[in-house]
């Protein structure tokens, strides 16, 4: 895929359905007692893996204009005939492990080369505290072997790192426990699982306490999934950094646990508005409008500490805004980035250097002085969808040609990314 400099971007973008919400709606539907219909489900690499795993667990799924999932009820999935494959998807393996841990049958779940390198002890440890029989490899990675149990013990647990996947895994396990599980978060992470299940949460000493009662019936529902704000982020930053742009991104999740990157772009000086804000299925959704002037003036900043978990998926694209901003752009306390679909610190640092920036790499982040010119380069995606999309946007402001080495990896979360991008660029 070759990308060259554009004059502006203009138009209306409909990003695909939200990835985090799609996974959760599929899993919750499978645990419900009856037939669910789902509009705007994301059909992409990661979420297809969740559907495939559920089918192997005996869940009837009909893929039509609307997705239909016939729930089997809590503790009623069927034993799979083969190993479950989560592919590239951390959300699939970690959330589904919470459900498998509470079933009466044995199962095994694994993933692709990237997923088999990612840390699983963060879910294995608390699941074992719940008396789940789950074993990772010696390195604490997938494949995960899970043995059947009659029930799980409820626990009170504060994850060591803020992670919506760990929290959601424990919520799903909690649905299979005898009693009330409490999960404590010092830094609140994306809360779609709690919203979808209508869970109670309160704050104590500044920490969020989420309560989940085991064994309760889940009612089937008709879901409408909002568009993905993290996919929208690539177009939002494109609108911010390409002069004379005017772009409207429709019907995206405006859940505050997902929109911190918009606040950061505003702090940097971006003109971003929201409109048509309403609530759909307990999630705030709306349009995001981005405008830029003839001269783009962004002020760089440091992202560190408690800010990081809320923008973890958007750091690759925020660093592209930083590349043209004025002053030092620094990311610290973000070593979690090394444990994503790729080592995203390495991927960002190498690719920004290839585009002409002088970047310093730290164990937990990176830093560079912004400058107004990027040069086109060969971008190594490391098979990571967010790296591919972030550096495609960088290519739109770079002098010369940018080549993305494996553009197909965008299919993990945003299969028609390049098609939509080409519909809004103006040369
Ligand atoms: C996700 C949680 C985040 C995020 C990932 C999706 C989710 O991961 O990076 O893309 O849907 O729960 P962590 O829980 O590892 O922070």
TrEMBL record:
Question: Which residues does UniProt mark as catalytic?
Answer: 313
Give the catalysed reaction(s), semicolon-separated: 3-phosphoshikimate + phosphoenolpyruvate = 5-O-(1-carboxyvinyl)-3-phosphoshikimate + phosphate
One Gene Ontology molecular-function label? 3-phosphoshikimate 1-carboxyvinyltransferase activity
Q: What is its main location?
A: cytoplasm
Q: Which Pfam families match?
A: EPSP_synthase
Which UniProt keywords are given for this protein, alphabetically ordered?
Answer: Amino-acid biosynthesis, Aromatic amino acid biosynthesis, Cytoplasm, Transferase
Chain sites annotated for binding phosphoenolpyruvate? 19, 90, 118, 165, 344, 386
Signal peptide stretch: none
Superkingdom of origin: Bacteria
Under which pathway is this protein filed? Answer: Metabolic intermediate biosynthesis; chorismate biosynthesis; chorismate from D-erythrose 4-phosphate and phosphoenolpyruvate: step 6/7
Name the Enzyme Commission number(s) assigned to this protein. 2.5.1.19
Gene3D superfamilies xrefs: Enolpyruvate transferase domain
> What residue stretches are annotated with the Enolpyruvate transferase domain?
4-421
State if Transferase is listed as a keyword. Answer: yes
Check the record and name the SUPFAM superfamilies matching this protein. Answer: EPT/RTPC-like
Q: Which is one Gene Ontology cellular component term of this protein?
A: cytoplasm
| Cited function | Catalyzes the transfer of the enolpyruvyl moiety of phosphoenolpyruvate (PEP) to the 5-hydroxyl of shikimate-3-phosphate (S3P) to produce enolpyruvyl shikimate-3-phosphate and inorganic phosphate.
Q: How does it assemble?
A: Monomer.
Q: Which family does it belong to?
A: Belongs to the EPSP synthase family.
Q: What is this protein called?
A: 3-phosphoshikimate 1-carboxyvinyltransferase
